[in-house]
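This entry is listed as follows:

___
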Amino acid sequence: MIRFRFELYPLDEVSPWGGEQPALHWFGLTEGWYWIEVGGHELLRRARADYHPPYVDYYLARLWEDVNMLTPQVLEVVPSELEPFIASEQEGEFEDDSDEEAAAFWHCEHYLDFGYIRNAPRVRLWRTVNGDRDEVTLDWRHHDDGDIGFTAGPAVRVSVPTADYLEAVRALDRELMAAMRKRIQEIERRGGLPGVEIDLAGLEREHEDRTRWLRLNLARSIETDWAAITRGAR
């Protein structure tokens, strides 16, 4: 089982953007906490007790956008001969426009980006099909620097059925869209937020647009040059 979990900040605790003219928009209104439940782990749960709730706090829109953008890449089945390569840690420099660079770039395209948080974990996801086993593997790596640590520890690798991963992506989309619909309705009921500029009509338009993002992303086709990746893999 895998799930992307979240909790939005209470509306009155959301931080406005800007200085003398504070404002809020759809992205800013998604401020909250989030974590990933998989294989009995709570990834992104902080190891130290001075955080409450004990999870990464940032804008849910960022996680949602990154998961949406990453998923077509995740769902592309990795050929069996490249499974050892995608499962390995890759570092180093490569010549421009070389097969090695193409392979390294393809490898990096499987990372779920958390570079916006301090001492970020490295999280990769990829899909394999072997016989009747169709799975997405999640690989977590993190070094506790004495300040930022997570309960999952330095390394976790869990495989889940691909159907479960896809349902987790869809559930994140459904739940965030529903939560933001309620949030927008509450702002409209209040007539806005005191001292904060909010374009209510623009907020409605953006929300309706974002309800289509996942469907459009899942329809994207990925064109991978498997021959070049295979030559460049090492």
